[in-house]
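Deliverable D4.2, example record:
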Amino acid sequence: MPAGAAYPYHRHEWGEFVYSYRGVVEVKVGERHYLAPPQYGLWLPPRVEHQGLNRYEAVHCSVYVASPLADGLPRVTCALTINPLIKSVLDHLRRHQVQAPYPDDVTRLLRVLVDQLAAAKCAGSYLPTSEDPQLGQVLSLIEASPHDNRTLAELAKTVHATERTLMRRAQRDLGMSLSEWRQRLRVVKAMSLLETGAKVEGVAFDLGYSSASAFITMFRRLTGETPDEYRRNFKQQ
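Output generated by the structure prediction step:
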């Protein structure tokens, strides 16, 4: 899916699991945006109206799950944490380009995939948003300038709030600290830069890190691979 592309709003009687092999997938449900990099996937229950869109180029797939089988998966839209088995099955299905009607061995593999998705941890959205006026403004400031290293106290002053107030609202609306949210945003931004061939050191400085090593440590912690490994894997897709 090229950068800036979008599907029209639609809904269907089956559930849908959207997984990005490379890049970040984004789905809009109502006024909420759900994002998921490759270590997550997005689950959409049956009959949920949604729109697929991409700020950046992404390589992704959709797994459609019939309603009876979808009953064992979450009843709300959310990001699911991907384990190595799920990733391996999805990679296998992509390489072999299976088509219905499926032979027995593929049917068994698909049932294993559904079972694994049903057992996966629901993580809400990888990069959630907030309708709170003050917190929402802070998130917009961070997104517009991911290199900005202002402290939480300094950001609170810009929206006439206290640091404690922002901390409380971040946990309430985002389920994480603003520091964690900012690091996740930087990962999303870094992925798009690395995919264009930007050097790791340059990406680190562009995102506000004082050294490439600090950026590499953060990127590995949140994605499970180094920036160089991510870029190499992207080129192989």
